[in-house]
């Protein structure tokens, strides 16, 4: 297949020269692991002690990876990307909150996004993170079969209500809902809640999507078992496919507690798992819908090839490509130019509250082999092309 993703003119068409320079120097810094570690530690200390660093963060890493502080802040970015047929998934990315008021706020933000989705074609999905709606410890206890206290029972009931409220709103407004995946030791409870919502709201088409982290070696088996249940019970499956975001944490915990490592043995095995699941879902597209969340060129070419050989329309609503804002523009914009369905995850939220997300992005770019080098090479190519 033609190497579509080499076209940097299309990839960076929306970036001014100064934005291109900022991205270049940001990734130059991120590729140096010691700098990322020092920068992370200094940032955490500065925020904890309320030093006035939010302006610096906002002007650099925040503005590159986030759409803004509020939904309204994001609108100019959303509109600009949509001129190139790239859609947005507004993602309220405040993390690490453990109080009911914050869980209710996250629910309200999700409901707002569903409402935006009915008003703007540029926002085709809503999204939330399971621990945005309830404590990780609750999910963990349910996953492990540990009894809940009376107070925890009340809290868990409220978590289930939040899932129901947003899923019902998504169904009524016909706006698909993506639900993220997190650590293995809490994911079983989230999977069960998501399946219950699929069973209720995915009867005729996919509204509720779960997420499969495909650095887990058990996910294809899980999907096949879910597929059997869906056919027996008459509902459709929606899944966002990602490689995963918690590898080091997962391996360390497995070693500490002495259970089998849930992560594939190497990157090649993860890539194979991703492509096998993608192929399985595509072959069963009448029962499923796919949101392929990938920064991997080969997996993107695979899905393009599957679409071409099947005769499916490039913009069939059951198949989407997705990337994170601030990364892999060469994939997003070139796919969109070819007429495929493409959406960028666009994080937003108060600078202080979004920092855990930003730190994870920086660490991911440092640890994923070739990720930062690829971004830098593409930016260099475009700077040379523009003679800047």
Chain-averaged pLDDT: 92
What fold name stands as the CATH topology of the largest domain?
TIM Barrel
Helix content: 55-70%
Instruction: State the shape.
Output: globular
Main sheet specs: 8 strands, parallel
Contiguous low-pLDDT stretches (5 residues minimum) are none
CATH architecture descriptor name of the largest domain = Alpha-Beta Barrel
Oligomer type: single chain
What do you see in this structure?
This protein has helices at residues 8-11, 17-30, 33-48, 54-65, 71-82, 100-119, 136-144, 150-173, 184-201, 219-233, 247-257, 267-283, 297-310, 329-337, 351-367, 371-386; strands at 87-92, 126-128, 177-179, 208-213, 237-242, 288-293, 319-324, 342-348. By secondary structure, the chain is of the alpha/beta class. It has two domains: 1-66 and 355-388, no CATH class; 68-348, Alpha-Beta Barrel (TIM Barrel), CATH 3.20.20. An eight-stranded parallel sheet has the order 1-8-7-6-5-4-3-2. Strand 4 (208-213), helix 10 and strand 5 (237-242) form a beta-alpha-beta unit. The relative contact order is 0.16.
Highlighted features:
2 domains, TIM Barrel, alpha/beta, 388 residues, eight-stranded parallel beta sheet
Short account of what is shown:
With 388 residues, this protein is α/β, with parallel strands linked by helices. Helix content is 59%, strand content 11%.
Structural topology:
Blueprint lengths: L7 H4 L5 H14 L2 H16 L5 H12 L5 H12 L4 E6 L7 H20 L6 E3 L7 H9 L5 H24 L3 E3 L4 H18 L6 E6 L5 H15 L3 E6 L4 H11 L9 H17 L4 E6 L3 H14 L8 E6 L4 H9 L4 E7 L2 H17 L3 H16 L2
Parallel strand pairs: 1-8, 2-3, 3-4, 4-5, 5-6, 6-7, 7-8
């Amino acid at each position: 297949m033609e190497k579509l993703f080499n076209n940097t003119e299309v990839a960076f068409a929306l970036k001014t020269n100064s934005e291109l320079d900022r991205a270049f120097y940001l990734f130059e810094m991120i590729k140096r692991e010691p700098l990322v570690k020092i920068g992370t530690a200094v940032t955490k200390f500065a925020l904890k002690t309320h030093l006035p660093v939010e302006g610096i963060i906002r002007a650099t890493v925040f503005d590159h990876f986030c759409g803004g502080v509020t939904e309204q802040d994001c609108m100019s970015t959303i509109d600009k990307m949509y001129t190139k047929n790239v859609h947005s998934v507004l993602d309220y990315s405040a993390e690490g909150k453990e109080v009911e008021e914050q869980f209710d706020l996250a629910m309200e933000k999700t409901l707002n996004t569903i409402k935006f989705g009915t008003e703007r074609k540029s926002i085709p999905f809503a999204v939330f993170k399971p621990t945005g709606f309830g404590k990780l410890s609750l999910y963990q206890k349910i996953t492990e079969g540990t009894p809940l206290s009376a107070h925890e029972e009340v809290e868990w009931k409220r978590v289930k209500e939040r899932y129901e409220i947003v899923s019902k709103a998504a169904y009524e407004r016909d706006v698909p809902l993506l639900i993220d995946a997190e650590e293995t030791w809490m994911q079983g409870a989230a999977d069960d809640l998501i399946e219950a919502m699929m069973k209720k709201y995915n009867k005729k088409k996919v509204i509720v999507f779960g997420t499969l982290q495909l650095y887990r070696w058990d996910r294809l088996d899980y999907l096949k078992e879910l597929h059997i249940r869906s056919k027996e019970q008459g509902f459709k499956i929606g899944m966002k496919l990602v490689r995963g975001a918690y590898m080091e944490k997962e391996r360390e915990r497995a070693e500490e507690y002495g259970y089998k490592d849930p992560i594939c043995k190497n990157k090649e095995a993860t890539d194979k798992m991703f492509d096998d699941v993608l192929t399985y879902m595509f072959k069963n597209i009448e029962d499923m819908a796919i949101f392929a969340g990938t920064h991997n060129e080969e997996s993107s070419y695979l899905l393009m090839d599957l679409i071409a050989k099947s005769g499916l329309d490039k913009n069939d609503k059951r198949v989407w490509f997705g990337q994170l804002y601030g990364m892999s523009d060469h994939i997003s914009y070139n796919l969109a130019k070819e007429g495929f369905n493409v959406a960028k995850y666009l994080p937003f939220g108060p600078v202080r509250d979004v920092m855990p997300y930003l730190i994870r992005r920086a660490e991911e770019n440092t640890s994923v082999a070739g990720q930062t080098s690829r971004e830098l090479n593409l930016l260099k190519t475009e700077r040379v092309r523009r003679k800047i």
